[in-house]
Each structure stands twice: as C-alpha cells, then as structure tokens.
From TrEMBL:
Homodimer. SUPFAM superfamilies: PRTase-like. One of its GO terms (molecular function) is adenine phosphoribosyltransferase activity. Keywords: Cytoplasm, Glycosyltransferase, Purine salvage, Transferase. The gene is Tb07.43M14.200. It comes from the Eukaryota. Its EC number is 2.4.2.7. The keyword GTP-binding does not apply. This is adenine phosphoribosyltransferase. It comes from Trypanosoma brucei brucei (strain 927/4 GUTat10.1). Belongs to the purine/pyrimidine phosphoribosyltransferase family. InterPro entries: Adenine_PRTase, PRTase-like, PRTase_dom. One of its GO terms (biological process) is purine ribonucleoside salvage.
Amino acid sequence: MSQYDAILTERHPHHFTLADTHPLAKELHANIFGESDLTHANCAHVYDISSLTEKPALFRKVIEFLKCRYETMGDTGPTHIIGVESRGYIIGAPLAVALGIPFVTARVTKRFPSSFVPEGDDLKYLPMSRSIRNDSIPPRARVLIVDDFIGTGSTMLAALRLADIVAAQVVEVLTVCDVASLGGIKIIRESDDEMFKETPIFTLIHFKLSPREAEEQLEFVNSYITRSRL
C-alpha cells in the first residue's frame, strides 16, 4: 500500500484522520508521542512537534503526503496556508513551499501593531488570540489552517475566527494529531453559535488520554494561560 493511498476514518462528523492501519499513521504512532506517564514536569513535552522534526525521513513523508492530498483537490484546494504561531509554522511553511502557495502567519495579537487584523477586540490581549497582517489574505481565498495539534481548541478557534473576519473559505483545518480527551474539537464545534460545526478537520492521527492524564494536561494548559496573562 502506498503512503499516498489515504485510507481515512471519520472520527466524528467532518473530522477525519488516517486509519490506524495506514502505513504513515503506523509510523507516526510508533515515533511520536510515545510517553504515556504524564506528570506536571513532563506533560508539556509529550506532544512536542520536535519528535517529528527530529526524524527527517518521517518529516519528509508527512510533507509529501500532505502535498499529494491537497494537490489532488485541484481547483477546490487551498490558495493560502495560515500557520498558527508558533508550531503551526513547522508544518505549514514547508507545505506551502511544496504547494507553491502563500504562507500567512497567525501571530499572537498583543505583539503587533494596528496594521494587523485581530481576531476580535474583546480577545485582543488574551494569550490564545491571533492576528494576521492586513491584506495577507484576499476575500474568498481558500485557506488551509495548520497547527501541530488540537488540545483544548482555543488556539484553533482563534484562527478560524480570523479566517471568518477576512472572508476566507476554510478548505480544512490540519493538525498532526488531536487529543480527544481534552475536548477541543467539541469546543470548536459548539462555539460562536456553531459557526464552525461543519468545518472540515483533518488530523493525521488521533490520540486518547486516560482521565488522569487529561486532567493533568488541562491543569498544565490552564497554568500556562494564567502565567501568560501576568
């Protein structure tokens, strides 16, 4: 079976992953996110994208697979890629180069001046809020939004709101994995009067945590957000 023969599993409506039997999914599961014992000291590193980027052969396979996936969409495929700061850049930038389309950075709002389009005034100074440079994305552009993984959903929700503000069509949300136990996709679906209920989401692999692991991961994320506001 070729790595480009994408056998997909629909985990939830409009959310697809590679089937666990797909060769690329098997290789990702074998090489990424291998730690199973989360503690406060190491839970931040369990989903570190460097476990992919430090394996150049596997990293190349991922980019080549994704290039093939979006090229086959033809005229319905993305015209722009939005990479979410900061780890969305790692997958998004080389994929944009491979596809020959612009790569647009969605950066932390509070770092940038008024020449950037914010996600929304009420969220301008929250650490999960994002902005893009004015005129980076023309109206009705078809965008692919890229990040490393979906956890609580806050960061991806900010990027989706940005795409809506600039009147872009979201072809798909792309991440390496989602962590089902953190409920991020559910939050995305239910937010903003269910505006993103049917937005296509593609995660290469699907990852589950035990209730204890999920609780510790959420505690770490919440403590990070609290520190970022100080």
